[in-house]
Amino acid sequence: MSTEELREEQQFVSGLYARLDALREEAEAAVRASLTQVGNGLQARLERDVLVAERSGLLAAFNAGENGLCFGRLEFRDGRDHHIGRIGIRASDIERTPLVIDWRAEVARPFYLATGHTPMGLRRRRHITTEGRDVTALHDEILDLSDTTRTGHEGADADEVLLAALDSARTGRMHDIVQTIQAEQDRIIRAPHHGVLVVEGGPGTGKTVVALHRAAFLLYAHRQLLAKRAVLIVGPNPAFLGYIGEVLPALGETGVLLSTVGELFPGVSATGTDTPEAAEVKGRAEMADVLAAALRDRQRTPEPGAPVIIEHEDGDLVLDWTIAQEAREAAREADVPHNLGRPHFAFRVIDMLTQQLADRLGADPYGGPNFLGPDDIAQLGKAIAASPEVHAAIEELWPQLTPEGFLADFLEEPTPHLRDEDALLVRRPRGAEWTAADVPLLDEAAELLGSDDSAARAMAEAERAKQIAYAQGVLDVSYASRTYEFEDKDDDESEVLLAHDIIDAERMAERQEEDDHRSAAERAAADRTWAFGHIIVDEAQELSAMAWRLLMRRCPTRSMTLVGDPAQTAEAGGCGSWESILSPYVEDRWEYTRLGVNYRTPVEIMDVAAEVPRVEHPDFQPPSSVRSTGVVPWARRADDLAAAVADAVAAETRDDGRLAVIAPRELHDELAGKLPGVTAGEALDLTRPVVLIDPRQAKGLEFDTVLVVEPGRYGTSDLYVALTRATQRLGILHAQELPVALKQVAATP
Ligand SMILES: Nc1ncnc2c1ncn2[C@@H]1O[C@H](COP(=O)(O)OP(=O)(O)OP(=O)(O)O)[C@@H](O)[C@H]1O
Description:
Layout: H1 3-36, H2 41-64, E1 70-76, E2 81-85, E3 89-90, E4 98-102, H3 110-113, E5 122-131, E6 134-142, H4 160-167, H5 183-189, E7 196-201, H6 207-221, H7 223-229, E8 231-234, H8 238-244, H9 247-250, E9 256-259, H10 276-283, H11 287-297, E10 308-310, E11 317-319, H12 321-333, H13 338-361, H14 374-385, H15 388-397, H16 403-412, H17 420-426, H18 438-449, H19 454-478, H20 499-502, H21 505-512, H22 520-525, E12 534-537, H23 545-553, E13 560-564, H24 578-586, E14 590-595, E15 597-598, H25 603-616, E16 624-625, E17 634-637, H26 641-652, E18 659-662, H27 668-674, E19 690-693, E20 703-709, H28 716-723, E21 726-734, E22 746-747
Parallel strand pairs: 2-4, 7-13, 7-14, 8-9, 8-12, 12-13, 15-16, 17-21, 17-22, 18-19, 18-20, 20-21
Antiparallel strand pairs: 1-2, 1-5, 3-4, 5-6, 10-11
Residues 162, 165-166, 177, 180-182, 185, 201, 203-209, 565, 568, 599-600, 700, 702, 724 line the site of adenosine-5'-triphosphate.
């Protein structure tokens, strides 16, 4: 191995870190200085905010650059020579020469796509491995076969770097894969952002990690739009979101909101749980009509012949079926949400009651015209409109409702709108905790109800227009700030990232509203009506039809990436096929793509796991595993299951890496008692060496070693998920019979 090459690369990388340090210090100093700057007036505040925002964004990127700043090098046949890194950095010279190119730039693509067959102009591709700031290894691939120059770092196996990454011990947190993105993954990451892209693939094919890199790529390629509208990533549960939460910050990206569907109704935290059957009922598409019908029932009339009598200073008012019916029709014809229809209803009722009173008070006993003039009638109308009794009667017939109040009423008594057997499943007393399956229903209710904030909106809009106009002026004069070091686009269209690109006038103005310094993602989290720039849904196969309605409302442009695996569907309410999910929203205008290589599970484990779906689908083909470890899965029968699990955990725990015991929930208490220091329950800490989870919690996660306990009690898809979580070793412990699919697993005493 040539130490000279290594030394030269080290020198380059050290220089790069020195530049990173300088840039970071500059940015920190700028933030500090701006924060202490007490300028006078709005302009000074705006300028300060611009600076703080752009420098803070840069700081996040610089901090991300600390680990694995530079990991590749491309030498082209035409003499071009580029280093590839996590972020782009330029030198301080007058030309602002790119030192390292952002992995997302077009010019970096051959790093991921070039092959001996299609070298994309490359002579040599180098993988640079670093630990901290030290270069520890180089792997070179010669792509131009006529080139006879050798560096001494040509590896026998081009996949060495990938395999080292796949073999490494797990930490309980997902890591980025910028150094080893595979060609099939690269195409998905960089696919155009318009429209719906479905990414399907079996366990371990990189769906999640690819989706996260896609978010990073889209934020890079469409920064202006997405910094403003933010990207939403939806995952199945909070533990999973914790597991993937470090990937985007490690790529320098912060404009992303990670959320479960249950967290998407601001002000409501879904702490309750539903039975799977209740969740299934609540998730059905027909619930939209059911809620609409329940709401129509809240728009009432008195029974014919049993009018509401309202005491009034000028005599009783009779609000009968005819008046209420006519007012209700008029309000419904307005075709607006319920709460916005209420003023229409109230207006008609007041109008008709006024007429009623006027007819009575001004009647000419001799049959002539009414004595009252228009002014008198207007006076009567005012008095009626101000009457608390009249308001109470209107409220009774067409109440002002909140989504929470309306849904709580509905769940307390879901008949007659639901069939008896379904009503039995979802019925619950008022005041019960909200569940994740309630959130799409609350969102639906909010849509049906609307809120009468038109006056407030008009005022806010006028104020905003003023702010935008002013902020635009400030931006125009204050940007001589071409001090960005970022390499942001490929060489051909090389362009320095301007402050304008990061903060435009609109966003600037938004920042000013009530001194609102939150990021777009933070503001989006607090706003039910926020329209995201792009939505990524992981484990998309699990979402109910009602959850899809909620998500589609959050993404009117339908710029979405959906990743999932129908074979892993666990929720009874999960949608059956991509067609059935998507056709109501985009018909057949969506792209479908598949990932076919399993990067997680070695072939020995996958052979065992694949037998599970094959019981029902004999032709089932799992993704092909990229690795083989020679370690064969085992099964052990034990009467004292908890003791056997404790022994197995002791035997399988390694110094580094993570072990998961996956067991049915009802065994958790007993198992936890035998596993000191284990983490379990809702507040899981996945970074701990041993975790105890049930199959649903295991979704999307991975561990070095997995012990699956009592698999006979799992459903097919839960079992398939559980068996495909290990990167190295799989053991099965059972007291009951093994399911047929696992009978072949080597039994150990
Ligand atoms: N190109 C790659 N380089 C390095 N590691 C990779 C690559 N692709 C995938 N991986 C790793 O493979 C593992 C599985 O990836 P991921 O969790 O994204 O798969 P998945 O398809 O979402 O799986 P599942 O459906 O089972 O949840 C992760 O550890 C991921 O980092």
